[in-house]
Write a structure and sequence with these properties.
The protein has 500 residues and is mostly helical. The chain contains 27 helices and no strands. Helix 9 packs antiparallel against helix 11, helix 16 packs antiparallel against helix 17 and helix 19 packs across helix 20.
Amino acid sequence: MYIKYLNFLQKKYIVLLFTALPLGAFANFDFNANCLKAYQNIIELKLPAARQLIAAERKARPNNVISALLENYIDYFYLITNESKSEFERLENNKNNRLNEISKDDKNSPYYLYAQAEINLQWALIRSRFGEYYTASREINRASNLLQDNSKKFPGFHLNGKGIGLINVVMGSLPDGFMKKALAAFGIKGDVATGLNMLDKLAENLPKSAYEPFYEEVVFYYSYVLSDVVKSPTAYSKTMKYTARFADSSLLKTYLQAYVCARNNHNDQAINILENRPKGSAYQPFPYLDYLLGIVKLNKLDFRAAGNFDAFLQSNKGSSYIKDTYLHLSFISLLKNDSSGYNNYIAKVRNNGYTYNDKDKQALNEAAAPAPNKELLKARLLFDGGYFNNAFEILNSINTSMLASAKDKTEYFYRLGRVYDELNKNEQALAQYQNAINTGRNLKYYYAAKAAVLAGNICEKDKNAGRARSFYNTAIAMKNHEYENSIENEAKQGLKRLSD
Protein backbone atom coordinates (compact mmCIF):
# COMPACT_ATOMS: atom_id res chain seq x y z
CA MET A 1 0.00 0.00 0.00
CA TYR A 2 2.87 2.33 0.88
CA ILE A 3 4.52 1.71 -2.51
CA LYS A 4 1.26 2.45 -4.32
CA TYR A 5 0.98 5.70 -2.36
CA LEU A 6 4.52 6.66 -3.36
CA ASN A 7 3.72 5.93 -7.01
CA PHE A 8 0.61 8.11 -6.70
CA LEU A 9 2.66 10.97 -5.24
CA GLN A 10 5.28 10.55 -7.95
CA LYS A 11 2.66 10.82 -10.70
CA LYS A 12 1.12 13.86 -9.04
CA TYR A 13 4.55 15.44 -8.80
CA ILE A 14 5.20 14.88 -12.50
CA VAL A 15 1.89 16.47 -13.45
CA LEU A 16 2.49 19.47 -11.19
CA LEU A 17 6.06 19.89 -12.35
CA PHE A 18 5.09 19.59 -15.99
CA THR A 19 2.23 22.06 -15.85
CA ALA A 20 4.29 24.52 -13.79
CA LEU A 21 6.97 24.78 -16.46
CA PRO A 22 6.99 27.10 -19.48
CA LEU A 23 5.96 24.03 -21.50
CA GLY A 24 2.35 24.54 -20.56
CA ALA A 25 2.23 28.27 -20.05
CA PHE A 26 2.03 29.76 -23.53
CA ALA A 27 -1.32 31.43 -24.28
CA ASN A 28 -3.58 28.83 -25.88
CA PHE A 29 -0.93 26.10 -26.04
CA ASP A 30 -1.89 24.81 -22.62
CA PHE A 31 -0.59 21.29 -22.06
CA ASN A 32 -2.45 21.10 -18.75
CA ALA A 33 -3.08 18.10 -16.49
CA ASN A 34 -6.17 17.04 -18.48
CA CYS A 35 -4.26 17.16 -21.78
CA LEU A 36 -1.36 15.28 -20.23
CA LYS A 37 -3.72 12.56 -19.07
CA ALA A 38 -5.22 12.34 -22.57
CA TYR A 39 -1.73 12.11 -24.06
CA GLN A 40 -0.75 9.31 -21.66
CA ASN A 41 -3.89 7.38 -22.61
CA ILE A 42 -3.04 7.77 -26.30
CA ILE A 43 0.48 6.44 -25.77
CA GLU A 44 -0.92 3.41 -23.91
CA LEU A 45 -3.36 2.93 -26.86
CA LYS A 46 -6.35 3.67 -24.66
CA LEU A 47 -7.89 5.77 -27.39
CA PRO A 48 -11.55 5.74 -26.20
CA ALA A 49 -10.63 7.40 -22.89
CA ALA A 50 -8.33 9.85 -24.67
CA ARG A 51 -11.16 10.91 -26.98
CA GLN A 52 -13.41 11.61 -23.99
CA LEU A 53 -10.75 13.69 -22.25
CA ILE A 54 -10.07 15.76 -25.37
CA ALA A 55 -13.78 16.32 -25.90
CA ALA A 56 -13.99 17.60 -22.31
CA GLU A 57 -11.01 19.85 -22.95
CA ARG A 58 -12.64 21.25 -26.09
CA LYS A 59 -15.73 22.07 -24.07
CA ALA A 60 -13.95 23.55 -21.03
CA ARG A 61 -11.21 25.42 -22.93
CA PRO A 62 -12.24 25.75 -26.59
CA ASN A 63 -9.25 27.97 -27.39
CA ASN A 64 -6.64 25.46 -26.23
CA VAL A 65 -5.09 24.30 -29.52
CA ILE A 66 -3.16 21.50 -27.82
CA SER A 67 -6.44 19.65 -28.35
CA ALA A 68 -5.85 19.77 -32.11
CA LEU A 69 -2.40 18.22 -31.70
CA LEU A 70 -3.76 15.49 -29.45
CA GLU A 71 -6.57 14.74 -31.90
CA ASN A 72 -3.93 14.21 -34.54
CA TYR A 73 -2.10 11.80 -32.24
CA ILE A 74 -5.32 9.82 -31.95
CA ASP A 75 -5.74 9.63 -35.73
CA TYR A 76 -2.09 8.61 -36.07
CA PHE A 77 -2.23 5.72 -33.60
CA TYR A 78 -5.68 4.73 -34.78
CA LEU A 79 -4.39 4.36 -38.34
CA ILE A 80 -1.23 2.56 -37.21
CA THR A 81 -3.31 -0.03 -35.37
CA ASN A 82 -5.93 -0.64 -38.05
CA GLU A 83 -3.87 -0.13 -41.26
CA SER A 84 -7.03 0.85 -43.17
CA LYS A 85 -6.64 2.77 -46.42
CA SER A 86 -10.32 3.76 -46.42
CA GLU A 87 -10.03 5.12 -42.87
CA PHE A 88 -6.88 6.98 -43.86
CA GLU A 89 -8.74 8.61 -46.76
CA ARG A 90 -11.65 9.48 -44.46
CA LEU A 91 -9.43 11.14 -41.86
CA GLU A 92 -6.70 12.82 -43.89
CA ASN A 93 -8.66 16.07 -44.34
CA ASN A 94 -8.31 16.57 -40.59
CA LYS A 95 -4.68 17.47 -41.15
CA ASN A 96 -5.24 20.86 -42.80
CA ASN A 97 -8.05 21.79 -40.41
CA ARG A 98 -5.74 21.25 -37.44
CA LEU A 99 -2.83 23.07 -39.04
CA ASN A 100 -5.10 26.04 -39.74
CA GLU A 101 -6.29 26.06 -36.15
CA ILE A 102 -2.74 25.98 -34.77
CA SER A 103 -1.32 28.52 -37.23
CA LYS A 104 -3.64 31.23 -35.87
CA ASP A 105 -2.29 30.96 -32.35
CA ASP A 106 0.68 32.12 -30.27
CA LYS A 107 3.82 32.30 -32.40
CA ASN A 108 5.91 32.83 -29.26
CA SER A 109 5.18 29.34 -27.93
CA PRO A 110 7.63 26.46 -28.57
CA TYR A 111 4.56 24.44 -29.44
CA TYR A 112 3.61 26.72 -32.35
CA LEU A 113 6.08 25.28 -34.87
CA TYR A 114 6.52 21.98 -33.04
CA ALA A 115 2.83 21.04 -33.25
CA GLN A 116 2.71 21.83 -36.97
CA ALA A 117 5.84 19.74 -37.53
CA GLU A 118 4.39 16.81 -35.57
CA ILE A 119 1.18 16.82 -37.58
CA ASN A 120 3.07 16.90 -40.88
CA LEU A 121 5.43 14.15 -39.79
CA GLN A 122 2.70 11.88 -38.47
CA TRP A 123 0.74 12.11 -41.71
CA ALA A 124 3.92 11.51 -43.74
CA LEU A 125 4.64 8.33 -41.81
CA ILE A 126 1.09 7.06 -42.32
CA ARG A 127 0.97 8.17 -45.95
CA SER A 128 4.17 6.31 -46.83
CA ARG A 129 2.53 3.07 -45.67
CA PHE A 130 0.10 3.43 -48.56
CA GLY A 131 2.65 4.37 -51.22
CA GLU A 132 1.90 8.12 -51.34
CA TYR A 133 5.59 8.96 -51.39
CA TYR A 134 5.56 12.36 -53.10
CA THR A 135 3.12 13.94 -50.66
CA ALA A 136 4.89 12.22 -47.77
CA SER A 137 8.18 13.72 -48.98
CA ARG A 138 6.69 17.21 -48.97
CA GLU A 139 5.34 16.70 -45.46
CA ILE A 140 8.70 15.45 -44.19
CA ASN A 141 10.41 18.45 -45.76
CA ARG A 142 7.90 20.76 -44.10
CA ALA A 143 8.31 19.04 -40.73
CA SER A 144 12.10 19.19 -40.98
CA ASN A 145 12.10 22.93 -41.74
CA LEU A 146 9.68 23.67 -38.90
CA LEU A 147 11.70 21.69 -36.39
CA GLN A 148 14.98 23.28 -37.46
CA ASP A 149 13.44 26.75 -37.09
CA ASN A 150 11.98 25.82 -33.71
CA SER A 151 15.37 24.56 -32.52
CA LYS A 152 16.90 27.94 -33.29
CA LYS A 153 14.11 29.82 -31.52
CA PHE A 154 13.85 27.45 -28.56
CA PRO A 155 17.15 25.55 -28.18
CA GLY A 156 16.09 24.29 -24.77
CA PHE A 157 12.88 22.70 -26.06
CA HIS A 158 14.12 19.11 -26.15
CA LEU A 159 11.12 17.68 -27.98
CA ASN A 160 12.48 19.09 -31.24
CA GLY A 161 15.11 16.35 -31.15
CA LYS A 162 12.50 13.59 -31.40
CA GLY A 163 11.37 14.54 -34.90
CA ILE A 164 14.79 15.71 -36.08
CA GLY A 165 16.39 12.47 -34.92
CA LEU A 166 13.72 10.33 -36.57
CA ILE A 167 13.97 12.23 -39.86
CA ASN A 168 17.75 11.90 -39.89
CA VAL A 169 17.68 8.14 -39.40
CA VAL A 170 14.87 7.40 -41.84
CA MET A 171 16.14 9.72 -44.56
CA GLY A 172 19.73 8.58 -44.13
CA SER A 173 18.65 4.95 -44.57
CA LEU A 174 16.30 5.29 -47.54
CA PRO A 175 17.05 2.96 -50.45
CA ASP A 176 17.38 4.45 -53.91
CA GLY A 177 13.98 5.21 -55.30
CA PHE A 178 11.34 7.86 -55.81
CA MET A 179 11.10 9.03 -52.20
CA LYS A 180 14.85 9.41 -51.80
CA LYS A 181 15.03 11.47 -55.01
CA ALA A 182 12.08 13.60 -53.96
CA LEU A 183 13.62 14.36 -50.57
CA ALA A 184 17.01 15.05 -52.15
CA ALA A 185 15.27 17.62 -54.35
CA PHE A 186 14.10 19.33 -51.15
CA GLY A 187 17.66 19.21 -49.81
CA ILE A 188 17.00 16.52 -47.18
CA LYS A 189 19.51 13.70 -46.98
CA GLY A 190 19.67 12.74 -43.34
CA ASP A 191 22.47 11.19 -41.30
CA VAL A 192 21.88 7.87 -39.55
CA ALA A 193 24.54 8.27 -36.86
CA THR A 194 23.37 11.79 -35.97
CA GLY A 195 19.74 10.71 -35.72
CA LEU A 196 20.46 7.63 -33.61
CA ASN A 197 22.61 9.68 -31.25
CA MET A 198 19.82 12.25 -30.80
CA LEU A 199 17.20 9.61 -30.04
CA ASP A 200 19.51 7.71 -27.72
CA LYS A 201 20.28 10.83 -25.71
CA LEU A 202 16.58 11.65 -25.42
CA ALA A 203 15.76 8.11 -24.26
CA GLU A 204 18.50 8.33 -21.63
CA ASN A 205 17.83 11.86 -20.40
CA LEU A 206 14.07 12.51 -20.62
CA PRO A 207 13.28 10.53 -17.44
CA LYS A 208 15.59 12.91 -15.57
CA SER A 209 13.88 16.01 -16.97
CA ALA A 210 10.59 17.87 -17.02
CA TYR A 211 9.94 16.27 -20.42
CA GLU A 212 9.55 12.83 -18.84
CA PRO A 213 5.91 12.40 -19.97
CA PHE A 214 7.15 12.21 -23.59
CA TYR A 215 9.57 9.38 -22.81
CA GLU A 216 7.36 6.56 -24.13
CA GLU A 217 6.85 8.28 -27.48
CA VAL A 218 10.60 8.80 -27.92
CA VAL A 219 11.21 5.12 -27.14
CA PHE A 220 8.48 4.15 -29.63
CA TYR A 221 10.32 5.91 -32.45
CA TYR A 222 13.75 4.85 -31.27
CA SER A 223 12.71 1.18 -31.13
CA TYR A 224 11.18 1.48 -34.60
CA VAL A 225 14.35 2.81 -36.22
CA LEU A 226 16.59 0.34 -34.38
CA SER A 227 14.52 -2.68 -35.46
CA ASP A 228 13.13 -1.71 -38.85
CA VAL A 229 15.33 1.00 -40.32
CA VAL A 230 18.93 0.33 -39.31
CA LYS A 231 18.37 -3.27 -38.12
CA SER A 232 20.72 -2.66 -35.24
CA PRO A 233 22.15 -5.58 -33.21
CA THR A 234 21.30 -3.51 -30.13
CA ALA A 235 17.59 -3.28 -31.03
CA TYR A 236 16.52 -5.99 -28.58
CA SER A 237 18.64 -4.93 -25.60
CA LYS A 238 17.82 -1.23 -25.94
CA THR A 239 14.11 -1.72 -26.57
CA MET A 240 13.73 -4.04 -23.59
CA LYS A 241 15.78 -1.67 -21.43
CA TYR A 242 13.84 1.46 -22.31
CA THR A 243 10.36 -0.11 -22.33
CA ALA A 244 10.90 -1.59 -18.86
CA ARG A 245 9.77 1.78 -17.46
CA PHE A 246 6.45 1.63 -19.32
CA ALA A 247 3.35 0.75 -17.33
CA ASP A 248 2.28 -2.89 -17.70
CA SER A 249 -1.14 -1.54 -18.69
CA SER A 250 0.37 -0.07 -21.86
CA LEU A 251 -0.56 -1.96 -25.02
CA LEU A 252 2.19 -0.02 -26.78
CA LYS A 253 4.65 -1.73 -24.43
CA THR A 254 3.27 -5.11 -25.51
CA TYR A 255 3.65 -4.22 -29.16
CA LEU A 256 7.21 -2.87 -28.91
CA GLN A 257 8.51 -5.71 -26.77
CA ALA A 258 6.80 -8.50 -28.71
CA TYR A 259 7.87 -7.05 -32.03
CA VAL A 260 11.53 -6.67 -31.09
CA CYS A 261 11.55 -10.15 -29.52
CA ALA A 262 10.06 -11.68 -32.65
CA ARG A 263 12.64 -10.01 -34.87
CA ASN A 264 15.65 -10.75 -32.67
CA ASN A 265 15.56 -14.45 -31.84
CA HIS A 266 13.54 -14.25 -28.61
CA ASN A 267 10.55 -16.12 -29.97
CA ASP A 268 9.39 -17.78 -26.74
CA GLN A 269 9.48 -14.42 -24.99
CA ALA A 270 7.38 -12.89 -27.77
CA ILE A 271 4.78 -15.64 -27.37
CA ASN A 272 4.61 -15.06 -23.62
CA ILE A 273 4.27 -11.28 -23.99
CA LEU A 274 1.51 -11.55 -26.59
CA GLU A 275 -0.46 -14.21 -24.75
CA ASN A 276 -0.44 -12.09 -21.59
CA ARG A 277 -1.12 -8.72 -23.19
CA PRO A 278 -3.66 -6.33 -21.68
CA LYS A 279 -7.09 -6.63 -23.27
CA GLY A 280 -10.52 -5.07 -23.05
CA SER A 281 -12.71 -2.30 -24.36
CA ALA A 282 -10.41 0.35 -22.89
CA TYR A 283 -7.90 -0.33 -25.67
CA GLN A 284 -7.86 0.46 -29.35
CA PRO A 285 -8.37 -2.82 -31.29
CA PHE A 286 -4.99 -3.98 -32.61
CA PRO A 287 -5.50 -7.01 -34.91
CA TYR A 288 -1.83 -7.03 -35.90
CA LEU A 289 -1.00 -8.53 -32.50
CA ASP A 290 -3.03 -11.65 -33.40
CA TYR A 291 -1.12 -11.85 -36.68
CA LEU A 292 2.20 -11.49 -34.85
CA LEU A 293 1.23 -14.17 -32.34
CA GLY A 294 0.45 -16.48 -35.26
CA ILE A 295 3.88 -15.76 -36.76
CA VAL A 296 5.84 -16.50 -33.58
CA LYS A 297 3.85 -19.65 -32.85
CA LEU A 298 4.41 -20.98 -36.35
CA ASN A 299 8.12 -20.20 -36.00
CA LYS A 300 8.03 -22.87 -33.30
CA LEU A 301 6.14 -25.18 -35.69
CA ASP A 302 3.07 -24.85 -33.47
CA PHE A 303 0.18 -25.31 -35.89
CA ARG A 304 -2.24 -23.77 -33.37
CA ALA A 305 -1.01 -20.56 -34.95
CA ALA A 306 -3.87 -21.06 -37.44
CA GLY A 307 -6.29 -19.89 -34.75
CA ASN A 308 -4.39 -16.64 -34.29
CA PHE A 309 -4.25 -16.03 -38.04
CA ASP A 310 -7.99 -16.65 -38.25
CA ALA A 311 -8.57 -14.20 -35.38
CA PHE A 312 -6.56 -11.59 -37.28
CA LEU A 313 -8.57 -12.10 -40.47
CA GLN A 314 -11.88 -11.86 -38.58
CA SER A 315 -11.06 -8.64 -36.72
CA ASN A 316 -8.84 -6.93 -39.28
CA LYS A 317 -10.33 -4.00 -41.17
CA GLY A 318 -7.03 -2.88 -42.63
CA SER A 319 -5.15 -3.35 -45.86
CA SER A 320 -1.89 -4.98 -44.71
CA TYR A 321 -0.73 -8.50 -43.86
CA ILE A 322 -3.74 -10.19 -45.45
CA LYS A 323 -1.75 -11.89 -48.21
CA ASP A 324 1.03 -12.81 -45.77
CA THR A 325 -1.51 -14.32 -43.36
CA TYR A 326 -2.95 -16.55 -46.08
CA LEU A 327 0.59 -17.52 -47.08
CA HIS A 328 1.35 -18.68 -43.54
CA LEU A 329 -1.93 -20.57 -43.40
CA SER A 330 -0.84 -22.29 -46.63
CA PHE A 331 2.42 -23.27 -44.90
CA ILE A 332 0.47 -24.93 -42.10
CA SER A 333 -1.59 -26.91 -44.62
CA LEU A 334 1.53 -27.93 -46.54
CA LEU A 335 3.33 -29.12 -43.41
CA LYS A 336 0.20 -31.09 -42.42
CA ASN A 337 0.21 -32.73 -45.87
CA ASP A 338 -3.07 -31.07 -46.77
CA SER A 339 -2.49 -30.26 -50.45
CA SER A 340 -6.07 -29.13 -51.01
CA GLY A 341 -5.86 -26.67 -48.13
CA TYR A 342 -2.49 -25.45 -49.38
CA ASN A 343 -3.85 -24.74 -52.86
CA ASN A 344 -6.92 -23.02 -51.41
CA TYR A 345 -4.85 -20.64 -49.32
CA ILE A 346 -2.42 -19.94 -52.15
CA ALA A 347 -5.41 -18.88 -54.27
CA LYS A 348 -6.43 -16.52 -51.45
CA VAL A 349 -2.94 -15.02 -51.39
CA ARG A 350 -3.33 -14.21 -55.08
CA ASN A 351 -6.89 -12.88 -54.88
CA ASN A 352 -7.19 -11.17 -51.48
CA GLY A 353 -5.49 -8.25 -49.81
CA TYR A 354 -3.14 -5.57 -51.10
CA THR A 355 0.56 -5.07 -51.74
CA TYR A 356 1.35 -1.89 -49.84
CA ASN A 357 4.07 -3.46 -47.72
CA ASP A 358 6.99 -5.78 -48.42
CA LYS A 359 5.50 -8.72 -46.52
CA ASP A 360 2.46 -8.81 -48.78
CA LYS A 361 4.53 -8.23 -51.92
CA GLN A 362 6.74 -11.15 -51.00
CA ALA A 363 3.70 -13.31 -50.19
CA LEU A 364 2.40 -12.68 -53.69
CA ASN A 365 5.80 -13.61 -55.14
CA GLU A 366 5.83 -16.86 -53.17
CA ALA A 367 2.30 -17.69 -54.27
CA ALA A 368 3.51 -17.49 -57.89
CA ALA A 369 6.46 -19.80 -57.20
CA PRO A 370 6.45 -23.60 -56.87
CA ALA A 371 5.44 -24.97 -53.48
CA PRO A 372 8.34 -24.80 -51.02
CA ASN A 373 10.30 -27.87 -50.01
CA LYS A 374 8.81 -28.96 -46.68
CA GLU A 375 12.12 -29.50 -44.91
CA LEU A 376 13.50 -26.19 -46.12
CA LEU A 377 10.29 -24.54 -44.96
CA LYS A 378 10.66 -26.04 -41.49
CA ALA A 379 14.27 -24.83 -41.33
CA ARG A 380 13.20 -21.37 -42.47
CA LEU A 381 10.51 -21.06 -39.81
CA LEU A 382 12.72 -22.38 -37.02
CA PHE A 383 15.51 -20.03 -38.06
CA ASP A 384 13.12 -17.06 -38.04
CA GLY A 385 12.25 -18.00 -34.46
CA GLY A 386 15.89 -18.16 -33.43
CA TYR A 387 15.89 -21.95 -33.00
CA PHE A 388 19.20 -22.28 -34.82
CA ASN A 389 20.25 -25.72 -33.62
CA ASN A 390 16.86 -27.18 -34.56
CA ALA A 391 17.11 -25.55 -37.99
CA PHE A 392 20.63 -26.95 -38.42
CA GLU A 393 19.45 -30.48 -37.60
CA ILE A 394 16.80 -30.30 -40.31
CA LEU A 395 19.19 -28.84 -42.89
CA ASN A 396 21.83 -31.40 -42.01
CA SER A 397 19.34 -34.19 -42.65
CA ILE A 398 18.55 -33.02 -46.19
CA ASN A 399 20.05 -35.01 -49.05
CA THR A 400 21.05 -32.17 -51.39
CA SER A 401 21.05 -34.49 -54.40
CA MET A 402 17.27 -34.73 -53.91
CA LEU A 403 16.85 -30.95 -54.36
CA ALA A 404 15.84 -30.83 -58.01
CA SER A 405 15.50 -27.10 -58.69
CA ALA A 406 18.12 -24.34 -58.66
CA LYS A 407 15.75 -22.40 -56.38
CA ASP A 408 15.75 -25.13 -53.72
CA LYS A 409 19.49 -25.61 -53.94
CA THR A 410 20.13 -21.87 -53.60
CA GLU A 411 17.74 -21.66 -50.67
CA TYR A 412 19.46 -24.62 -49.00
CA PHE A 413 22.89 -22.99 -49.26
CA TYR A 414 21.49 -19.65 -48.10
CA ARG A 415 19.70 -21.07 -45.07
CA LEU A 416 22.66 -23.22 -44.05
CA GLY A 417 24.86 -20.13 -44.34
CA ARG A 418 22.45 -18.18 -42.13
CA VAL A 419 22.54 -20.86 -39.45
CA TYR A 420 26.35 -21.06 -39.48
CA ASP A 421 26.42 -17.26 -39.35
CA GLU A 422 24.24 -17.12 -36.25
CA LEU A 423 26.30 -19.88 -34.62
CA ASN A 424 29.43 -17.75 -35.24
CA LYS A 425 30.99 -20.32 -37.59
CA ASN A 426 32.18 -17.69 -40.03
CA GLU A 427 34.20 -19.77 -42.47
CA GLN A 428 31.43 -22.32 -42.90
CA ALA A 429 28.93 -19.47 -43.31
CA LEU A 430 31.05 -17.77 -45.99
CA ALA A 431 31.40 -21.05 -47.89
CA GLN A 432 27.65 -21.60 -47.95
CA TYR A 433 26.94 -17.97 -48.85
CA GLN A 434 29.34 -18.31 -51.78
CA ASN A 435 27.52 -21.49 -52.87
CA ALA A 436 24.23 -19.56 -52.75
CA ILE A 437 25.73 -16.75 -54.86
CA ASN A 438 27.16 -19.16 -57.42
CA THR A 439 23.94 -21.15 -57.74
CA GLY A 440 21.37 -18.37 -57.62
CA ARG A 441 22.93 -15.18 -58.97
CA ASN A 442 20.70 -15.25 -62.07
CA LEU A 443 17.48 -16.26 -60.32
CA LYS A 444 14.66 -13.87 -59.38
CA TYR A 445 14.78 -15.00 -55.75
CA TYR A 446 16.53 -12.92 -53.11
CA TYR A 447 18.75 -15.66 -51.64
CA ALA A 448 21.92 -14.99 -53.64
CA ALA A 449 21.91 -11.19 -53.26
CA LYS A 450 21.13 -11.36 -49.55
CA ALA A 451 23.86 -13.99 -49.12
CA ALA A 452 26.35 -11.56 -50.67
CA VAL A 453 25.37 -8.80 -48.22
CA LEU A 454 25.61 -11.13 -45.25
CA ALA A 455 28.98 -12.41 -46.42
CA GLY A 456 30.11 -8.78 -46.71
CA ASN A 457 28.96 -8.18 -43.14
CA ILE A 458 31.09 -11.06 -41.87
CA CYS A 459 34.18 -9.82 -43.73
CA GLU A 460 33.58 -6.26 -42.54
CA LYS A 461 33.48 -7.43 -38.90
CA ASP A 462 36.66 -9.44 -39.52
CA LYS A 463 38.38 -6.25 -40.79
CA ASN A 464 38.78 -7.77 -44.26
CA ALA A 465 37.71 -4.61 -46.08
CA GLY A 466 38.72 -5.73 -49.57
CA ARG A 467 36.70 -8.94 -49.42
CA ALA A 468 33.76 -7.14 -47.82
CA ARG A 469 33.70 -4.59 -50.67
CA SER A 470 33.75 -7.42 -53.20
CA PHE A 471 30.72 -9.08 -51.63
CA TYR A 472 28.82 -5.78 -51.32
CA ASN A 473 29.51 -4.97 -54.97
CA THR A 474 28.41 -8.47 -55.95
CA ALA A 475 25.08 -7.84 -54.20
CA ILE A 476 24.63 -4.50 -55.97
CA ALA A 477 25.42 -6.05 -59.35
CA MET A 478 22.58 -8.57 -59.04
CA LYS A 479 19.37 -7.19 -60.52
CA ASN A 480 15.71 -8.13 -61.01
CA HIS A 481 15.30 -10.10 -57.81
CA GLU A 482 13.05 -9.89 -54.77
CA TYR A 483 13.78 -7.10 -52.25
CA GLU A 484 16.19 -5.56 -54.77
CA ASN A 485 16.00 -2.00 -53.43
CA SER A 486 16.39 -2.87 -49.77
CA ILE A 487 19.19 -5.40 -50.34
CA GLU A 488 21.04 -2.96 -52.59
CA ASN A 489 20.66 -0.28 -49.94
CA GLU A 490 22.12 -2.60 -47.29
CA ALA A 491 25.13 -3.21 -49.56
CA LYS A 492 25.58 0.52 -50.21
CA GLN A 493 25.41 1.23 -46.49
CA GLY A 494 28.15 -1.36 -46.03
CA LEU A 495 30.33 0.32 -48.67
CA LYS A 496 29.69 3.67 -46.98
CA ARG A 497 30.81 2.32 -43.62
CA LEU A 498 34.00 0.99 -45.20
CA SER A 499 34.77 4.36 -46.76
CA ASP A 500 34.19 6.41 -43.58
